Amino acid sequence: xxxxxxxxxxxxxxxxxxxxxxxxxxxxxxxxxxxxxxxxxxxxxxxxxxxxxxxxxxxxxxxxxxxxxxxxxxxxxxxxxxxxxxxxxxxxxxxxxxxxxxxxxxxxxxxxxxxxxxxxxxxxxxxxxxxxxxxxxxxxxxxxxxxxxxxxxxxxxxxxxxxxxxxxxxxxxxxxxxxxxxxxxxxxxxxxxxxxxxxxxxxxxxxxxxxxxxxxxxxxxxxxxxxxxxxxxxxxxxxxxxxxxxxxxxxxxxxxxxxxxxxxxxxxxxxxxxxxxxxxxxxxxxxxxxxxxxxxxxxxxxxxxxxxxxxxxxxxxxxxxxxxxxxxxxxxxxxxxxxxxxxxxxxxxxxxxxxxx
Amino acid sequence: xxxxxxxxxxxxxxxxxxxxxxxxxxxxxxxxxxxxxxxxxxxxxxxxxxxxxxxxxxxxxxxxxxxxxxxxxxxxxxxxxxxxxxxxxxxxxxxxxxxxxxxxxxxxxxxxxxxxxxxxxxxxxxxxxxxxxxxxxxxxxxxxxxxxxxxxxxxxxxxxxxxxxxxxxxxxxxxxxxxxxxxxxxxxxxxxxxxxxxxxxxxxxxxxxxxxxxxxxxxxxxxxxxxxxxxxxxxxxxxxxxxxxxxxxxxxxxxxxxxxxxxxxxxxxxxxxxxxxxxxxxxxxxxxxxxxxxxxxxxxxxxxxxxxxxxxxxxxxxxxxxxxxxxxxxxxxxxxxxxxxxxxxxxxxxxxxxxxx
DNA sequence: CTGTTAGCGCCTTCAA
DNA sequence: TTGAAGGCGCTAACAG
Lengths: 357, 357
Fold this sequence. Notes:
four-stranded parallel β-sheet; homodimer; alpha/beta; transcription (chains A, B); HTH_LacI (chains A, B); DNA-binding (chains A, B); six-stranded parallel β-sheet; transcription cis-regulatory region binding (chains A, B)
């Protein structure tokens, strides 16, 4: 009929064929006479029918073609972090050709109590999605994860932890950090401080209490701290940042360096944090690496730090996004993706050197 | 039945009520006895039913709760531009409370011929969405826009142009640029160059041919060039950048400044481009603003340019995202949103001053 | 090769 | 306040 958008039935009757035939003309999933198909397409053209309504198709197939992606923070903050952006880019590039779209789902407010599931984004409970991706991992008691599992939405987790019934794509950050730590101790450093990514919810900035360290619940921070321990490094001080941003690193840097007996090296758990520490060092009149060595993690290209080039542990960011995309595809194909652990690589720049004795 | 996920019918029969009653128990859209509702919820709990399947609900209501957002470039590039990110953030914050989710749709490859609709992202044709947003405007002959309109998806356009049957949210960039130009001529500048955003498809870097200028098809670039004309400024040279990124600005800056008789002022159509021009000036040993004044557009916070503070025309980025979100809401409510034009503000920094005579 | 039939899961009249 | 019935638009069997 002429009210509302035309449906396949309208097209079929206009073309003088049955609905299922018209369906075939569009899906191509079956034998159909070229002439019939032309007739149908012609009718469609005439009626302004632009193809099957995805809503009907979705209900029928049980698939929406949508992948929900939970980013680890407010958009504003996540997108300021090139790490998130590159992973997302790799993910979208992989999903696109598969006909899958990415639905952005803001994580719960990082400053709020995570147990209150009332704070969850309603999209988690009600948006159509075939698979969900938690780009920045899950926590032990994760209301987000629970909400998804309750709905029966399969989950792919970036960064870990390994959780019953969810695929994981991670990196060898523990080993990478250990390599970095050994490199620094090899240079002669003994007083090494570290600036960490957020440890657990709700987020906090500053020197974590023992209690907070015990609740350490976020995979990247845990792995990288563990890497230090593996290398036999006991940090002289641990400072937690509430986000992986330059200004947090800068604040942490002041906290770490502006003391009577500062460390001779600072390992930050991300490059943006390290960049902030570097800026803090410059502001305090400390020379890098003569007075203090600074190292990061991620392998970002940060030309604005010029002339310094950060010593870092490079992780394959786009590749991680792609690996997550592959895992999503496997889940949709009914397979159980094996855990993936991507390699990282120590990359020495100009910001580390032997300590002054 | 126990195969597959439980449906509302399963829950209803487990609770000993009819499907429609069970539906009421969840939607709350009708009178229902507290006791009955409890019974239904209890049955749902027991069966692991997490609420109505969005696919069924969508088909029934004709709404998916999804807003397709076409970003102006590859994700990787768009997300490196804080302008896009802030607009997107404002949009998501507005849409979230309305129960609407954002589906990312990569634009067509900016380096390819736009008339080939084969290059369009398949999501445009097949993803469920109630409204689409073209964050970075539409072109005259826009395959993306056409694909959406053919499907009957209402469109909200950021930045213009005003197009039949699509809502527009723009800014007063023409007037803002004119203000900026008048400020510079007021300082005594007569030789003013400009670095533009992309003018049309396919993207190119460098000095545009007259033909290309004639095909000028992208609203932000057009408005801002027009603003110069309004102020009576005829640029000594126009250089087009292929994206709003620092390195493009830097390349353009060399092109503009590394000549026998360089301009005394450069107006870039974005802050990132202006930042690049500034870096180029520094590299060429030119002092800013003594040797050359540099101005941008957007009003970004760029602390890494320190000690310089860019003279710029500030636009309300989050507010633009929010305004787009409101327009989306209006469209969904069946209203026709009036065109919106947000104000901008000239903000003088340290990078502009009188020309040396 | 084409038509008939039967739902996918839900919500909303309408009637009881 | 609850139940019965129909249909949103589509596709997959199955017949013919």
